[in-house]
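Help! Submission page says 'invalid entity' but I think these are all valid:
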Amino acid sequence: MSSIIPATSLTAQTIAEKVQSGEWTALETLENYLTQIAKSDAEIHAFNTVLEDEARAAARAIDERVALGEDVGPLAGVPVAVKDNLCTKGMRTTASSKILENWKPPYDATVVKRLADAGATLIGKTNMDEFAMGSSTENSAFGPTRNPHDLTCVPGGSSGGSAAAVAAGFSPVAIGSDTGGSIRQPASLCGVVGVKPTYGGVSRYGLLAFASSLDQVGPFANTVRDAAIVHEVIGGYDPKDSTSISEPFPSFLDAIEDGVEGLKIGIISELMGDIDGISSEVIQKTREAATLLSKNGALVEEVSIPASLYCLSAYYLIAPAEASSNLSRYDGVRYGLRVDGETLAEMNINTRTAGFGDEVKRRIMLGTYALSAGYFDAYYGKALKVRRLLAQNFDEVYSKYDALLSPTSPCTAFKLGEKTSDPMTMYVNDVCTIPSNLVGHPAISVPFGSGSDGMPIGVQILAPPMQEALMYRVASTLESAEK
Amino acid sequence: MTEPISEKEVAHVAYLARLRLSDEELQLFTKQLGAVLEHAKDVEALQLDGVEPMSHPLPLENVTREDEVDEMLDREEVLNQAPAVEDGRFQVPQILGEQP
Amino acid sequence: MTNADLKDGWELIVGLEVHVELGTATKLFCGCINQFGDEPNTNICPVCLGLPGSLPVVNEKAVISAMQLGRALNCSVNRSVFARKNYFYPDMPKDYQISQYDQPTNTDGYLDLPSGVRIGIERAHIEEDTGKTVHIGSTGRISGSDYSLVDYNRAGVPLIEVVSHPEIRTINQAKEYVEELRGILLTLGVSDAKMEEGSIRVDANVSVRTTNEDGLRTRCEIKNVNSLRSLGRAIEYEANRQIDLYENGESPSQETRHWDESAGRTRSGRSKEDAEDYRYFQEPDLVPLNPNSEIIHMIDQGLPTFPSERRTQLAALADMDIAEIALIVERSHDDFASETIRAGATPQMAIKHLTNNLSDGLGKLTPEAFTSLLQMEETAELTSTQAKKVLGELVQKGGNPQEVAAQFGLEAIGTDQLETLIDQLIANHPDEWERFCGGEKKVQGFFVGEIMKSTSGQADGKAINQILNARTAE
């Protein structure tokens, strides 16, 4: 099995400390990662664009400021890889789609600004499933990303590039987006930490929208602590995002080592075998995680979230519906690809037909259908009610339990091409992650061993809205205990 | 057994979404979309009359901003990214049909 | 056109959809300048250009203005939710418009017209405006154009769409409705409401029915009406077009039609088959607006007095009909009129002068001077002709009427003096006098003219006739 995994990985925490103290320079730190990329990204294709010049300039600037005694920020000199659906001013932002192949936004996403303000150096834009629609990064218009643990396997998706970048040592941390599991599932398949924040916890301004009521931007890292550090940098109220939470979040780091003594943790029973397709190895690993937590003082019991059984269907009605509207703006008029036509409508059709891949077209049509007159109530309207039921289920469970546990992905990384012939087969990969998106709760995937195929397995911790501190605490225990 | 969605309906939504499908694609997508809708029958079959729809995960209300001028974009920067420009405006081919 | 102008047996049914551009400093969802007439595509940002990744944030002033308008129109102000209206058109940067659908800000109001009719208002909701498209080609119109050019300066400007119930029954009512709405908007100061600049746009839903019918027949929406005059012409044309169809055994299709000003007719825009499915759903990038009762109360407290109330007040004070004093209110001369009347002036006299002789404005005329002048006319110290002349001077230069009258050397000719003059005239023209007493009324003009000549026009016509008539009786 051909794999590209570095022997050791530096943490963002370490890098920031060393750069801020002057022991290391941001530039040499960056060069190490650029070397790694040059060596191995041809095989992995984690990046759509490597921003060598821009990153070097940023690193030099950081080093100058450090020399002047300035406090550069919590991510001083830390390279960050950013998913290619986040706007980076003047730098290619493609959403891995032909329709935006050469688009350069005239503005930065809020998240991108905050990373730069914290001293991070943007090392590149990572590959993804086109417009975040997919679970394997095989839907990219520019070719798939390969799993660094096994180059014949997928890294997961849609943030496959970002997950692979961290796993392959191309960057200590990365940023992805999660609409139905697109951070957590690739994190699980690549053996890294991945977090989906509370909906509204991280600004969506500058994130190319897929499904607006589900999308969230979040971090990938090698350690739970690193993920929390990045999360705190990018998170918080943004007046440019009307769905952004203004209430401040409690610190993620203060209590992160507090352990799980006395906490009540529920294992979601429906995700432990009721739903078809969840591998027994994955279930076994999740039970091991549960045992570990109880050994550390938590009370772990099975709980039921009955509406989980309907989540996949509800998601595949709600997300495409919103996406069909969000993607209408790609019409060849103001930016991006234009394929000419005799009339406006023809130009729109030619452009969108040439510019979008099959999965994007499928979801746009599905969403358009679900919103159509005559079908709205039966499909989209019903799905919104399932969402309410799910929220009620969670509320009830959280009145008795502090956090929840489940597998992240139903399986380990599958082979490239294995699941591309039937969309439904691919969709089932999201079954464990979708519930948190629908209700807007935070969730994290923590690496927890591997399967018999040697490929990573991740387990998922879910927490109530705005309870990231608790989520990180439990995750941290799992991480240290597992070692 | 009736198909969840017909080729005619798929062709219609394709037009609504400004997409053109070849005959093969029409057949394939009809089948694939049908499979998703078939799976979604579990949701369709639920009796949820008393349940309020949940459009949004957040209970936020009344988020507004002051009526104050903010930074605007430089026209040249924007027009440089445009496929076709004339006289400082975005150019589009002949529009058939009036503004809805 | 009154109902009398429609063919016998037919009734006109009109509902108006009026789009009002709010005069906020910035656009509805972003901080771009809201201004008419700037260089194309200079007032733009990622949000109003709909760039990938952009998000809307609601302008508070626009919401307050919307609620103020709603309360001015006697609507309920509700918890509201924004919705996306999805369709492809190049003047919409996102290819969907953020509007309100089933939970709009204002519902169930009414507008009272000067003629006394009350028109129900279904809703007044908030939405964003589109950009402007210019069609380049031989005609400058969309059909026959070669290509089009789009300017997004207007994209994202806040609009309130006011939808009336189909309760308008005459063209005059339709025009009154628009003018009354304008008056409210100007009084509130939320829009400059200029039809010629497009800051107020009117679409008319027109249908007809026979006079003994209850239900509503097929209606057509008429767009592209750019003035009140066009509105009247378009409604008239369309009503007659529909009647003709019915009378020929056909019926109109439900469609949008465009008013062609130069041709004087409406033309079919889109057929029913092309009817758009807008696929409305709640806007996920925005959260609901839910004004509490305190805010609504504050808005109510802050509302100015609107034309209809001012009309009611003035009519009551003057003890006259609303129709008689409506013009005074429209010119915003009602406060002035009220002060004058309260100071003791005869209402009819005050209103008559305001209506006929003060249409160009009050200038330097003060209420005290006006009241004093009216008194001089009342006591016949000045004739009405003289009063008009003094009034003109007071408007131009100010001052008080006694001084101005003296300046002009104006005094009404006293009755004694007048009688003497008339007797002299009668004595000098016995033939004409005999003819007048014999019943030849037109000789009266001769006598009046002679008196006027000898008094340099300062005699009061009424008084002259009174005296002449008295003399004939003797």
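Support: the input was valid. A stray whitespace character was the problem, and the output above is from the cleaned input. The mean pLDDT of chain C is 91.
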